[in-house]
């Protein structure tokens, strides 16, 4: 007789493949005969902002953040399909495998880039008047395979739509941060 009690890692009753041991990721849950398994990878549209939505992502800082995001993603096995930046936020299209957690991936991307950008630009923390580079949270949306092209177009067209954004006019003292 198969054990059908709920177990850790599975919030619903499911038919286990091994009675004494819980199933692992990648095996399918069965609930009333319907397979509820996951695909091998998931696509996520992720966005996050600079602290207090300050316009920090400009000039050399923007280039550094962009290269750092790509480097960290490559090092950690996170596939970045699209990357778009505005002066105060970043949009990413990420492809993650079953074993990868979205929260950990975003935490790695934000944490490593913030630390390294403050090391590269030591005056940025004081000039911007912020202790942390990124806001604490992030937004995301699961992207169906059929919508990838439209999401990529949206991310890539971020710079083309600044008039649509309801932002205060740029202050003269908010010039792009440059390395001297």
The residue-averaged pLDDT reads 76
Secondary-structure arrangement, i.e. CATH architecture of the largest domain: 2-Layer Sandwich
Q: For the record, what CATH class of the largest domain applies?
A: Alpha Beta
Strand order of the largest sheet: 4-5-3-6
Shape: globular
Task: Estimate percent helicity.
Answer: 25-40%
Q: Biggest β-sheet, characterized?
A: 4 strands, antiparallel
Secondary-structure element pattern, one letter each = EEEHEEHHEH
Radius of gyration, whole Å: 21 Å
- What would you call the structural class? alpha+beta
Q: Which topology of the largest domain does CATH recognise?
A: Alpha-Beta Plaits
Count of DSSP strands: 6
Strand portion: 15-25%
User: What count of helical segments does DSSP give?
Assistant: 4
In CATH terms, the superfamily of the largest domain is Transposase IS200-like
Number of domains: 2
Weakly predicted, low-confidence segments = 9-38, 168-175
Molecular structure report:
With 180 residues, this protein is an alpha+beta fold. The protein folds into 2 domains: 32 residues, no CATH class; 124 residues, 2-Layer Sandwich (Alpha-Beta Plaits). It contains 4 helices and 6 strands; from the N terminus they run βββαββααβα. It has a 4-stranded antiparallel sheet, sandwiched between helices. Strands 1-2 form a two-stranded antiparallel ribbon. Strand 4 and strand 5 form a beta hairpin. The radius of gyration is 21 Å and the shape is globular.
């Amino acid at each position: 007789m198969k054990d059908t009690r709920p177990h850790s890692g599975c919030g619903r009753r499911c038919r286990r493949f091994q009675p004494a041991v819980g199933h692992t990721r990648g095996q399918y849950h069965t609930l009333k005969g319907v397979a509820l398994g996951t695909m091998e990878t998931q696509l996520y549209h992720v966005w996050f902002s600079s602290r207090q939505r300050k316009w920090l992502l400009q000039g050399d800082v923007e280039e550094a953040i962009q290269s750092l995001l790509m480097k960290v993603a490559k090092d950690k096995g996170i596939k970045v399909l699209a990357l778009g930046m505005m002066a105060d936020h970043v949009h990413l299209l990420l492809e993650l495998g079953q074993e990868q957690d979205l929260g950990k991936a975003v935490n790695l991307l934000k944490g490593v880039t913030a630390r390294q950008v403050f090391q590269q630009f030591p005056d940025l923390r004081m000039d911007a008047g912020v202790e942390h580079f990124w806001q604490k949270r992030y937004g995301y949306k699961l992207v169906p395979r059929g919508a990838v092209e439209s999401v990529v177009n949206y991310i890539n067209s971020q710079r083309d739509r600044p008039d649509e954004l309801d932002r205060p006019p740029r202050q003269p003292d908010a010039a792009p941060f440059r390395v001297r």
